[in-house]
Amino acid sequence: MNCIYKAVDKQNNECLYIGYTKSLYARKAVHHTHSKNIKKTSKFYKYVREIGFDRLHFETIIELPHYDRTLLSKLERHYYDLYQPSKNYNVPSRTQLEYMKDNYAKIVHHNLVNREKNNIKNRQKNSLNHEVINARAKLYYHKNRVKILDKLSTQINCPCGATFRFQFKKLHRESDLHRVGLRNEICKTIEKLNLPKYE
After folding, report:
1. Closest CA to 19 of 75, 68, 66
2. For 113-167, how does the pLDDT look when each residue is reduced to its tens digit (9 = 90+)?
3. Full-prediction pTM beyond 0.70?
4. Nearest to 18 by CA among 27, 7, 3
5. What is the domain partition of the chain in residue ranges?
């Protein structure tokens, strides 16, 4: 029996958990075993240990004729959104992007708190592997020397009208020559197209 099921508290009829399974009987037995295991620290099992397993009632929401994990996963998410169970540990089928949106403030706070600690860790890691990193970089350069030099010496025509080598791209983009040249080119384009000028 492939199905989506829910675990309900008999006393207050609250939906605690939504899941999917091939066999509800077997899944119920697993939940019963896990609820006795103190190492299982999810909200659902903690709550079950408080109220007792006998207070739970497992209901089949929908049955499928054959096992289709993708479909079951989508249906689980649908019924999760519908019933809003209070003790599910994870949101079913939640993408990384959805997780980032749901926990944006928490992630930003965590990054700010741990930024300095992570920087120290990275510095220590880099200092320990400094020789290995340098050796790897040298080896890569010697293997690809001709290709690298060809790329660096490639001539680039900038929209500002200047020509420079690829290796000076960043320097050129930050220069006054680029800013002035780009502004002049924009002015020329405006004149050619007879567009209104903005002071």
Report:
1. 75
2. 888 888 888 888 888 788 888 888 999 999 999 999 998 889 988 888 888 898 8
3. no
4. 7
5. 2-93, 95-143, 154-193
